[in-house]
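Blackboard transcription, Thursday session:
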Amino acid sequence: MLSIIKSIALNGIEGFIIDVQVDVSGGIPCWEIVGLPDVSVKEAKERVKTAIKNSGFEFPSRKIVINLAPATIRKGGSNFDIPIAIAVLKACGKIMSFEYESTLFIGELGLDGAVNGVIGALPMCIEAKKRGFKRIIIPSQNELEAGIVEGIDVIAVKSLSQLIGFLNNQVTIFPSKFDLEDVLKCRNLYNVDFSEVKGQKNVKRAIEVAASGGHNCILIGSPGSGKTMIAKRIPTILPSLTFDESLEVTKIHSIAGNINENMPILVNRPFIAPHHTISQVSLVGGGANPKPGDISLANYGVLFLDELPEFDRNKLETLRGPLEDRKISISRLNYTVTYPCNFMLVASMNPCPCGYYGYGDKCKCSNNAIRRYLSKVSGPILDRIDIQVEVSGVDFECFTSDEIEESSYKIRKRVEKARAIQIERYKNEGIFSNSELTDRLIEKYCIIDGKCQKILELFVKKKGLSGRAYKRILKVARTIADMDCSEEIQEKHILEAMQYRNLDNKY
Amino acid sequence: MNKKEFGNIGEKITCKYLLKHNYRILERNFIYRGGEIDIIAYDRSKNEIVFFEVKTRSNKEYGLPADSVNKYKLNRIIKGAKYYLFKNRINKANTRFDILEVYYSQGMFFINQIKQII
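(Written on the board underneath:)
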């Protein structure tokens, strides 16, 4: 007897439908899986066999051949246990007719017949809905995460026997319902706030510009001047995630296996701060089984590289492409996957090895040492950072003063206003912020008058800036104009944007 | 009584046991190149041809009877089963492989059937 059950596998963040075909016939008993399974899929044999026995069913003494079609794609993961078990039982006539054509099955089996959670349940559900399936069977551990998807019946099961009861119409399981309000309550709840940062008005302004346009920025300053403190508070002033953005972010974190029952959907922008010893693969993604790296986990959020010069040069250089393209294509012998990585890069560094260059005569570093230190960060990377800002230490009077600083909430409201202008302007271009402007769009939207042109020309020629740097100044000026609610870019906007490129200036 | 005779007694006892349990004995001591299948029987209740390996032991000092059926022994039995099906032109039958353990202790025989070893 032949039976076919539909399941789903992931390639990157895209899903594709897998037909689990099972043939049960006479002859010498054996149990084979074909269709390019990897080890974790082959191990399904033992799990399925034992789980069926321990769920009170007899495992047939037959020749069983399982094919995972299409057989050209490599399949990994443990989510085929349930479809294989159901297909075997169906082929033996143990379960009745059901709408198998319009139902997807995913789940891992334990030896006792319990259904265990899988990685990537959310992207699978989204794909299932996109392909018009009526229902999807998922492990109950993934219920909260997968229940977000609307327009498809998400059936969460705890055990194999419960699922068989459901398929035989003996047990009723209601589709999971998801309470969106409950989750959105946690939105914009952070345990840090910008009001804790005393003084630093110029840095705060620069960060606000960066947040308003989604620009990359670097903070340079002496130890203890508050670089990390400010960087940690950047997510609190970024505009709230929309529901669709939340889904996109959660999708990637779901594939990375970061989703648990306490946090079924990410409602806040991710803030990823890898240590400088991070490996290249965990930074950009890859591995034997493709996994998204930190730059993809920071999608729609902030990637914070503390102590930028401490990172190995070759690791930083891998960021060049992703910073421009906002997606990363990982090609290996066995697979090619593309992950989005639309992040805002925030970096921090000291001006010299001892950290006090330019702050009194504390610095004892030789010129050579300073040059060596700064050369660890390559020009191409700095060129891609729109906003470069110096953080100087705060006076003692300043952090003991009782003056109340602006809260993150207030700053965020302004940022959201500036973003709204951008979204409205670019609604037909398929982008959301000024930082995403392409060359063609810069010519269209960043028009400056003759006088501004002159100032900019002088600046670029004097500093010997690249064409890209010139365009990036225009983008930042556009953002500053948006914050000002000004239609056209004025002289003051250009001038402010220019001073955010002071790294080329000073070092 | 030597080892062979002791084994034969075990097989005789198991035949009686199988007849009682709704089996039809098809063949005993089916010999093929490379080995021998002790009992081949037809399980009426399940509609399966069953190949039995009978192991008789008088004490448990050297482990349980079933422990001595290892991978090589199993492969030999499978080979014999294929030959039996081929020889008798049986194409579509369902098959099963069982072990029958027979212990002898204090003048009594105990039978333990282990079903579906592959």
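Lecturer's comment: Chain A touches chain B through nine residues (CB under 8 Å).
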